[in-house]
Amino acid sequence: MANDGISRRHFFFGTLLAGLIPRAGFGSVPSLKALGYQSPNEKLSVAGIGAGGQPFGDLRQCETENIVALADVDWVRGEPGFQRWDKAAKYKDFRQMLDKEGKTIDAVVIGTPDHMHTHAALFCMERGKGVYVEKPLTRIASEARLLRSAAKKYRVATQMGNQGTFARGHARCVRDHLSGEIGDVTEVHASMSRPSWPQG
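Above: the chain's sequence. Below: its structure in token form.
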């Protein structure tokens, strides 16, 4: 879901320019960018709940932004993130991270084990932070409805990682199931050619 309000960057940029337009108009003095000025609002300040494994991969997709804080209960598993973004503040408890670093955080990448997704996302949204949450978003439907309501109430941007779910094969399976063409489904087997974590 996208934020319905004016973006923070747009607001600050507009406010900044309102007081900086040269009296003789644009072009009468060198631009701020030409003078080397870069607004701190041009990049998001991103935190990670989880710093190793899947969250590490997700955070690497954000490293054009500022990675400012990381929380991981398992500092051995989180070591790749802690090393890569060594200037980021480090925590074991994401609640403490948000309490202490909240003013500097714009958005949070959540890649914890599944049972924590709802709790962590809600905690972030209540504090006005945009969230990217790995799948599955929630364990049960009521948690999904809770997060949908929170996103609307707190007017934050949200996204869930759903890599590959719009592939043609997935859509065909859903269509065949919903049409009744394959009958009642009582058991499903799934396999992976390249497991990215230890599996039986």
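The helical segments are 8-18, 53-60, 79-84, 94-101, 117-126, 141-154, 168-179.
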